[in-house]
């Protein structure tokens, strides 16, 4: 396996008798932007868990800068420069925005972004002294992204980053990810097609646990076969 940035080769994942992923290949570069879409149950979250090393695939290998990461302890994966934001925010509601970011930095041995730069990137510079509990839903998600990247990773994985957001928050999140993407690679699993359109990312379509299509979102959106998949016609 070559030492490209992130490479997944012939990934298969089985839970008991259920084959959830089959024969998926993906290779992404530094500072790339990738969206993973597909109908419910297509295996998107499972694939994201395999890409972060949280799940060791039953077949195939995931390597980050040439090192196999499947099943490594989370702190080792984080130290390699991979960060993950989950769907449910886990910010500290009694701490301010800035204090939350400081907590996220504790123990980090990596070079860090200046605090102001981090606040600017997540769009919360003017909200730095506001307590977590007072933030709007979207702002909590952005703070969580800030906490995930506080130790300056080179790859960030997001599972449905716009879940529950208003259309404005969703648009702001796309802009936020574009800002982040100047510094690091981002992979996002997402349901909201308006968000994926705004991202304009290289897009991977999964269908029934298999690779279905990959390409620029504009091409994917115009693809009749992809529409059929979403409408359950395939
Ligand atoms: N730990 C597990 N054990 C058993 N089955 C699982 C496990 N995790 C996921 N699955 C099954 O794998 C399939 C794919 O689930 P996954 O959550 O990856 O799909 P998804 O594309 O992210 O779906 P959604 O869009 O609904 O979130 C589903 O049938 C799910 O029930």
From TrEMBL:
Residues 6-233 form the ABC transporter domain. Transmembrane segments: none annotated. One of its GO terms (molecular function) is ATP binding. Keywords: ATP-binding, Nucleotide-binding, Transport. The keyword Oxidoreductase does not apply. One of its GO terms (cellular component) is plasma membrane. Pfam families: ABC_tran. The keyword Transport applies. This is ABC transporter ATP-binding protein. It comes from Tianweitania sediminis.
